[in-house]
From TrEMBL:
Span of domain N-acetyltransferase: 4-129
Naturally occurring in which organism (per UniProt): Photobacterium angustum
UniProt cross-references to PROSITE patterns, sorted A to Z: GNAT
UniProt cross-references to InterPro entries, sorted A to Z: Acyl_CoA_acyltransferase, GNAT_dom
Gene3D superfamilies, sorted: 3.40.630.30
Superkingdom per UniProt: Bacteria
Protein name (Swiss-Prot/TrEMBL): N-acetyltransferase
SUPFAM superfamilies: Acyl-CoA N-acyltransferases (Nat) (SSF55729)
């Protein structure tokens, strides 16, 4: 496999991402007001994740890895590439139940929907009421948490 590059998407390339969503995740569509990160191989987008800012929080949404590239660690590395951004503001996601462990390994913790901020709680309830099997999660940077606790224990 050729080298994979992880980077924030140049907004001019938004139509390329939407073409991929249309093919592999029809309910997802990237919007100009979102921050979008991609994984690219041979100048082709093979994975994408979007961040929607709602007031003072981020909602990770629309994570997609093209099927032929799945189960190769690309999604983990894409989230790792976004880590600095996710640490700038509280970052939540609504994970499909079958992806809960993946998101936990990526630094998210499962939370009770009652603990969601009001500005996204209604969105979560709407999705859940439409029959989607979703779990609310909050990003907790375990690397930062571990180094902070080590520094605290030294003092």
């Amino acid at each position: 496999m050729s080298q994979i590059i992880y980077r924030q998407l140049d907004p001019i390339r938004l139509p390329l991402v939407n073409k991929i969503y249309k093919s592999f995740y029809p309910s997802g569509k990237a919007k100009r007001d979102e921050t979008i990160w991609v994984a690219e191989s041979n100048n082709s987008i093979i994975a994408s994740v979007r961040f929607k800012t709602i007031d003072n929080i981020q909602l990770l949404t629309g994570m997609l890895v093209i099927p032929e590239y799945r189960l190769q660690g690309i999604a983990y590395k894409l989230i790792e590439a976004c880590r600095n951004q996710m640490n700038q503001q509280a970052c939540y996601c609504f994970a499909f139940q079958e992806l809960e462990v993946f998101y936990q390994k990526s630094g998210f913790q499962t939370i009770n929907s009652e603990n969601l901020p009001n500005n996204i709680k209604q969105r979560f309830q709407r999705y859940a009421n439409s029959g989607k099997n979703l779990i609310p999660m909050l990003f907790i940077d375990t690397l930062t948490s571990e180094s902070m606790s080590k520094n605290i224990s030294k003092h």
